[in-house]
Backbone:
């Protein structure tokens, strides 16, 4: 086993990886930028190397400086976390060239899955389900128009080098096609230095469900069931859960088997994720594969009782998988809320800055993966993720109640967070019943769900007025509950004071 690992990342994920290392008796090396001199991951590590100024292009993305830090520290392996260099095949290759173990898949698997058209070709060749569309890049507009007629409208133009929400264009009819094609090409060129575009049939209101896979370096690969990730805002995941309320055992088994076949096809080792879109007819299609540990991995850890980071490290060190497929079974229900420094009353505008007060939830079934502390200034240069709040309970309704309780216990002052937004989403009947798709959050917000303080007050007044106007019949019925503004802590404290008053 490795004696020392360098973690080429920051924030909560750097801590997450270092915690696994510490439990395994592995020394840890941090890297940090100017903005992170006082960061928790730097304090937590056994040693730390400064790698540049605040912009990530000058620090966390500097392959040369990170390799230099690794060599100077004597680390044997590098964990890339997610984001930054985690899906950079050149970095994986550079590590191996320097005799450093890259805790991730082979550069070859990364390259195959990095090209969306190469991945689609490989899957189509193996008879695996992809969204109907082209398997090659489209060069001329004449070809695009011909192929579009074959596939039919509406359709999606996607960047071959893309992924996530970048380089996407929905086209409703042939009239929109030419300008959409030109814009998509130039966007792809700017974002990925590769203008290649391909076409997919547009799926209406799909779900986004992904399957965790885990493979070792000896050709063994299993799937670790699904995560439901349909709750997204502008292609950013907001809430994830497992099991998916949409899947039954049969569909779950089919998607799991398909994901494992895709992993094997890619000669994959390490933890990885196969993303699917599932349409309203319950048909599922490969979307893309993420060749890294994902932000939402704790959801899988909670329902499976596995430590994915430790498994990644063991796999990288050449150990065989410790699990067989038959041993994999979800137990209970897990949910994750991504807590961001952003202002839900102001279009989720980033709200970095000084954290003046912090009190995190605890108690049964709660996990808070964070990289923040009281007195820390959330830098403006990076993703403003503060924490991932993960709860587990025996079933979905109880897990939802536990998440509400945890969010109410969460107190952050000095900066704005999206916690109040989660409390409202968790009250929504369609979320509670599991009736949602990838467009759910964006549709809610278009319809004025994220009200600012003033209109939220107005809405409560209107609700009260309506209850009163509804007449005598409802006087003794509960008035529609207003969203709770203050935390449960404060309300409880106040009640106590009042109880102590002499009567
Ligand atoms: C689609 C789609 C419908 N049909 N492809 C958006 C992110 C990127 N990874 C793929 N995305 C989509 N691709 C076809 N053929 C709808 C989306 C999509 C989406 C997918 C997953 C999660 C959230 C989404 C929100 C809007 C659109």
Residues:
């Amino acid at each position: 086993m490795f004696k020392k690992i360098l973690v080429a990342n920051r924030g909560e994920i750097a801590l997450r990886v270092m915690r696994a290392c510490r439990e395994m008796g592995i020394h840890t090396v941090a890297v940090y930028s100017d903005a992170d001199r006082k960061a928790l991951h730097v304090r937590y590590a056994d040693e730390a190397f400064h790698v540049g100024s605040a912009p990530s292009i000058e620090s966390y993305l500097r392959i040369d400086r990170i390799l230099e830090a690794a060599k100077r520290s004597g680390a044997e392996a590098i964990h890339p976390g997610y984001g930054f260099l985690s899906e950079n095949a050149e970095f994986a290759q550079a590590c191996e060239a320097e005799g450093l173990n890259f805790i991730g898949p082979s550069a070859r698997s990364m390259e195959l899955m990095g090209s969306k058209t190469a991945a689609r070709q490989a899957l189509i060749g193996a008879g695996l389900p992809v969204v109907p569309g082209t398997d090659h890049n489209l060069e001329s507009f004449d070809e695009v128009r011909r192929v579009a007629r074959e596939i039919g409208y509406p359709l999606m133009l996607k960047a071959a080098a893309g992924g996530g929400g970048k380089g996407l264009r929905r086209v409703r009819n042939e009239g929109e096609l030419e300008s959409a094609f030109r814009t998509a090409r130039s966007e792809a060129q700017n974002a990925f230095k590769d203008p290649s575009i391909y076409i997919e049939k547009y799926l209406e209101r799909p779900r986004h469900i992904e399957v965790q896979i885990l493979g070792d370096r000896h050709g063994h690969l299993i799937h670790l069931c699904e995560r439901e990730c349909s709750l997204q805002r502008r292609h950013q995941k907001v809430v994830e859960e497992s099991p998916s309320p949409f899947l039954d055992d049969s569909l779950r088994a089919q998607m799991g088997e398909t994901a494992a076949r895709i992993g094997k096809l890619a000669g994959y080792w390490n933890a990885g994720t196969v993303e699917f879109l599932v349409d309203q007819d319950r048909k599922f299609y490969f979307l893309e594969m993420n060749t890294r540990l994902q932000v939402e991995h704790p959801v899988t850890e909670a329902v499976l009782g596995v430590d994915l980071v430790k498994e990644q490290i063991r796999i990288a060190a050449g150990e065989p998988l410790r699990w067989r497929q038959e041993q994999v079974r979800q137990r209970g229900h897990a949910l994750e809320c991504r807590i961001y420094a952003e202002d839900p009353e102001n279009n989720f505008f980033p709200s970095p800055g000084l954290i003046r007060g912090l009190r995190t939830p605890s108690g049964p079934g709660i996990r808070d993966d964070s990289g923040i502390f009281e007195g820390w200034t959330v830098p403006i240069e990076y993703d403003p993720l503060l924490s991932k709040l993960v709860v587990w309970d025996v079933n979905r309704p109880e897990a939802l109640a536990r998440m509400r309780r945890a969010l109410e216990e969460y107190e952050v002052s000095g900066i704005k967070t999206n916690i109040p937004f989660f409390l409202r989403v968790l009250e929504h009947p369609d979320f509670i019943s599991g009736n949602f798709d990838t467009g759910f959050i964006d549709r809610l917000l278009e319809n004025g769900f994220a009200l600012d303080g003033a209109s939220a007050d107005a809405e409560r007044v209107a609700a009260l007025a309506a209850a009163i106007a509804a007449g005598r019949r409802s006087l003794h019925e509960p008035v529609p509950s207003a969203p709770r503004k203050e935390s449960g802590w404060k309300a409880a404290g106040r009640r106590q004071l009042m109880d102590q008053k002499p009567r």
Notes: The longest strand covers residues 221-233. The chain has three domains: 4-103, 132-201, 207-454. The chain has a mean pLDDT of 92. Residues 152 and 201 are 7 Å apart (CA to CA).
